[in-house]
Amino acid sequence: MSWAAKAWGRFAAANHKTGPVTEGSTPMATITKIAPSAQPNAGTVHWLNQCVERGKTEVFSEVITVSPGLAAELLRRNDGNRSVRQTKAEQYAIDMREGRWAFNGEPIIISVDGKLNDGQHRLQAVIDANICVVFLLVFGLSRESRETVDQGAARGASDYLGMGGLPNATTAAGIARLVLAYEQAEGQSAESKLITNASVVERVRADSGISTSAHFAVTTGRGGRNYVAGVVIGFCHYLFTQIDADDANEFLTQVCTGQRLNAGSPALAVRERLLAEGKSRQPKIAIIFRGWNFYRRRMKVRNTSLPKTLPFPALV
Q: How far apart are the C-alpha atoms of 47 and 44, rounded to whole Å?
């Protein structure tokens, strides 16, 4: 039995006092039609059915704490919707579990015939996080209106940071995303699909080093934009600065500008390797990391000694 079905079964049993609901017993649809003996509590199946009935004559909304059980019941009424993108649901669940999910008035929409029009990823996240979350539920809209939902441009972390007046918001958000992925992978890579916008915004606002490295990326880093993205330079600058700020500035300035470089220089070797590399970020980061380690040991190196392979080396 799926997680959602189990959650719904526990929820239905608690709301209707009819004993546990299992596959092969009384159909769920029959149970949800049992009339309550008193005014139904908000968030129960009977309350939901009452709202659906009211929605047949008017459009209205309710602010409700949605439990995993209620989320499962709403998802059960979700035929004909798009497939759930599990990565997106898990991103939401992470923010919910870690306390970054804020009530913002974005509604869960239930159609006039009681079907879920919008909100399946948020509801799946409630189940995955196994916590209760406050949502605005809107009832009474036509089933066809779901075809007009989510047609605006989605906001990213850089939009939220920019609205707060942060300079270089796009670069700062990109650096923070790479830093969070790097930390999540314990320094093995800088790639993850589970870094949320909320976690990026939180990190940038709490860590002034991100903004410092973003400034370096959009100024000095501009010199290397033909072969390496500013976000990558900013990410490397952030990490290298934790080790030695002066060395970080000097080495990455050499990489980006190519000035005063002699044969065997680690920065020159990095530049030559980056110029021959494609657009993928991970290999370019690996090359820069290896060049940095040679630079820190004040050793000469050929570009053939800077492999792009993963995992990343430890930084010295």
A: 5
